[in-house]
Amino acid sequence: MLEIQWTRRTHRLRNTIVVLLVIIIFGAIVEIWHLFTRHQQPVFGSISVAPALQRKTTYSVGNFLVRWEGTTGQFSIVNQRNPHHVIFSTATRKGFLAAGIGSLSSKDNMGYFTLSEVRKKLFTKQSVTSIKDSGKQLIFQGDLTSPGGGSVPYRMTLIADSSPKLGYQIQMLSPRVNRIYLTWANQPSDHYYGFGEQFTAFDMQGRRLPILVEEHGDGRGRQPLTLLADVTHGAGGNWYNTYAPVPHFISSQMQSLYSENSQYQVFDFTNPHAAQLEVDAKSASGVIFSGTTPAQLVQEYTSMVGRMAPLPNWTQQGLIFGAEGGTKTVTANLDKLLAYHVPITGLWIQDWVGQRKTSFGEQLWWNWVLNHTQYPDFKQFERNVKAHGIKLLGYINPFLVNTSSDKGITTNLYQIALANGFFVKGKNGKPVLFKYPGFEAALIDLTNPKARNWLMGVMQKQLIDNGFSGWMADFGEELPLNVTLSNGESGAQFHNQYPVAWAKLNQQVLKNAPGGKNDFFFMRSGFSTSPSYTSSFWAGDQLESWGSKNGLESGIIALLSSGLSGYSINHMDIGGYTSIDQFPLHYVRTQELLMRWMEVAAFTPLFRSHEGNLPSKNMQIYSNPTVIRQLQKFATIYKALAPYREQLMKNAAKTGAPLVRPLFYNYPNDAKAYTISYQEFMLGRDLLMAPVTAPHVTSVQVYLPKGNWVELFTKKHYVVSGAGMNIEVQAPIGKPAVFYLAGSKVQSLLQHS
Prior knowledge:
Strand 26 and strand 27 form a beta hairpin. The longest helix has 36 residues. 25% of the residues lie in helices and 31% in strands. The strands form ten sheets. Strands 1-8-9-10-11-19-16-15-13 form a nine-stranded mixed β-sheet. A seven-stranded parallel β-sheet has the order 20-21-24-28-29-30-31. Strands 7-6-12-18-17-14 form a six-stranded antiparallel β-sheet, with no helix packed on it. It is of the alpha+beta class.
């Protein structure tokens, strides 16, 4: 009998292995197929110059010099104040402009967009026939010719803005053209950072990066998870999927460019000698920044797009506890943490609207009305929570679901919005229905003033009037590209701006509310100008895992990259969000992962937990005394650093400087710093962390830049002068590798904690 059972188990194991191998191989084939079908190659062409312009000439454009090499058709730009630092240079013997006629179609599913790009005709042979200099503007003109015949006249204008900024405008003088390609010089040793919130890659050298707001994916190339997520609900995602892309970068050569277009666009760094920006539009505009440090470039960029205001002081005083399950469950778990003296400043109950089970896990009723079945006698519950000095926070998103199937819900906002025509509509004039696991939802058209004002009224009554001091403003990525909105714009035109409109609406609710200045909201979606309107960002639905494709490492990359594009206040769900427990996949939060995530979160702008989509499967911050003690320790450290973070936030409001920074932000002359990604990060200038981001690891390799560093938990000093220092330090759970500069404010704060 034992032999038969053993044989059966062997067969099952063998079959499982075969299935997994098939999935992995098929997934690899899918990845290769995507690479060669979806992704286009950069568009490079030749350049010719009119005989009269075939000479070396330097033009003055405001505070900038444009050095023209007429024999090669190349130009470079420097600031007159620093003539040795080239801030932009076109590629030698390559056209700096090309144009095209093409089409972009898409299929969308739950915020994931499958794009089909077709290039019908390309105009790649560039001629430069005139250069006009007015002192404030420099205008290049000529034609772009197609190898198959036909040409398009163009105009590119460099415009003096201020000393650190030089604007550009590119116009294709033909109604047929709807693609523009701008090319500049790239070197294999260059590194490119920023681009909004990126997750898998920090340096984009060698990559082709689309700029499109969308869901960030469950697997992002991690197999077999990605393939299975795609097959079941189309949610696998790719390495470049992000909730908050921004067409802006900073390079290791201190070059920085911002594309002001909001249409779909692509940055291409796959050629080692020429980089390219492709914009799906008839005209393109942007800014080239001048600066010699990342801090200078971030300051100039954020002076254009806006900066984030400091958070209310109460948000910095401890844990924002993410809890759910109704009054009794939430109260019991809150009491567990309070019994261990965990400093708690906020209680975030996302299920204030009611909860239901779907195939994905525990999900909310997207009907923004207080659910008295879930939270009976809410006023008494609110008084009990606030008696501990704890603020209440809720949840909202721009969708609504039809709640007619739930007899316990008496106010059906979906029906009200439907009757008033407030939803995004398809070509048939009916609301577009978005299919999610177990339900359908409709999206509010935020270009409709009546819809916007109505939703703001709902939020005032249901959130503000019910005593919430903040909320998660979720989603914002799902607007289809093929719809026409209330204001006449197409979905393709407004898609990347939808999350900006969503942020503006939430900000306005706070401005209109009495005491709203002391409240805040946090978002995952965004675009270029979102920081102007958003209290805080968070890095979205991270997989409860360790990896850089999706997990703890990718969350750290998100904080580092977004900070360089103006998202100065960003944070993560402690422990991640997405659990998957369906054969053959098992991604649920372990105790070790949760405790390591706490360590990282203590040195970020907000310390907030989440139970995840499968709360009963996950280790929770209240699950056992060991976890609670770890939570109490790092919530206390987080609280102790509040004065330091408050000063950093005030500085961010003035300069755009991110709170969480890559090493090279503070050490721009240290070449080693540019090679470090999630392995290390800094909070401001005075604190450095080398987190543990893999299981069963108790020591880490650390690179310390110049300075007098003190290890937090051992008090050991490391004096680094000149070149940096590589060390190995012990980092058991509860004592991660954290360093502060001797004599800094951080030292005194931590010594007194």
